[in-house]
Amino acid sequence: MDKPYTGGCACGAIRYSIAGEPLFANHCQCRDCQRESGSGHGSYATFARAGVTVTGEARRWDMVGDSGNVKTRAFCPTCGLAVYMTFAAMPDIFTIRAASLDEPARYQPQAVTYAARAYAWDHLDAGLTKFETMPPG
């Protein structure tokens, strides 16, 4: 069996373990991700929900994406770190923030989403595939 992806918040109150490899890994330059990260993009890895175990209680807030679907961001109520996201329209996936990984070097981005909202000062790997918005399902 492959080594699980593990991680959590900064204070350790929320922990996750994920069996399997990411289905998709991306840098997102949408305005929501910019605000949440405090930079020009957020970096995420998305997995099949079936392989995910989470311990600890997260606080959550819902927002509506450009698609009109609800995405729920989960963060630690103690340290404030945003750890993961879930999507009402896609209950079978689980998305983590790359920086929340115990071994962030395992994160290998495949694409940039919402490149249309990029800032000139946010330099990402020019070799990555860029999508103006979210790629088709």
UniProtKB/TrEMBL annotation:
<dbReference type="GO" id="GO:0046872">
    <property type="term" value="F:metal ion binding"/>
</dbReference>
<keyword id="KW-0479">Metal-binding</keyword>
<keyword id="KW-0862">Zinc</keyword>
<comment type="similarity">
    <text>Belongs to the Gfa family.</text>
</comment>
<dbReference type="InterPro" id="IPR006913">
    <property type="entry name" value="CENP-V/GFA"/>
</dbReference>
<dbReference type="GO" id="GO:0016846">
    <property type="term" value="F:carbon-sulfur lyase activity"/>
</dbReference>
<feature type="domain" description="CENP-V/GFA">
    <location>
        <begin position="5"/>
        <end position="122"/>
    </location>
</feature>
<protein>
    <submittedName>
        <fullName>GFA family protein</fullName>
    </submittedName>
</protein>
<keyword id="KW-0456">Lyase</keyword>
<dbReference type="Pfam" id="PF04828">
    <property type="entry name" value="GFA"/>
</dbReference>
<dbReference type="InterPro" id="IPR011057">
    <property type="entry name" value="Mss4-like_sf"/>
</dbReference>
